[in-house]
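Long-time lurker. I teach an intro course on protein structure, and each term I like to show students one example going from raw sequence to a predicted 3D structure in token notation. This year I'd like something fresh instead of my usual example. Would anyone be willing to generate the tokens for the chain below so I can use it in lecture? Attribution to the forum is fine with me.
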Amino acid sequence: MTDLAARAEHWALTLTRIPSVTGTPDEVALPETLCGLLRASPAFRDRPDDVWTIPAGDRQGRASVAALLRGRGRRTVVLTGHFDTVTTTDYGDLQPLATEPEQLKPKFRSLFLKEFQYQAVVGCAWV
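-- Reply from a regular --
Happy to contribute to a lecture. Here you go:
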């Protein structure tokens, strides 16, 4: 795995593990959590003021996160994204693992394999 791929995987897993279901206190807390993670990262460790929140202005107290990573040229690139979890109730019995992709993956495999085996047996019964 390349360094870039490892860093992308680290951020994807780290962010997925943070509960942030829409309409919950976790969603409201996520921006400050994300700011803390970014400020602790090598890119912003020496420039913590270059990471901040922008209040959404709603009753829930939600916010967006902004960060300025300075380059060498005059051009500026702005990246923006969406961060919250719509719901985890669709995971049923696996809901506690909804934000744990590494633990969830083998459970899904097992469930799909069982369903596939069931369909194969039922399908054979009709032949």
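Some talking points for your students: The helical segments are 3-16, 25-40, 101-125. The beta strands are 51-55, 63-67.
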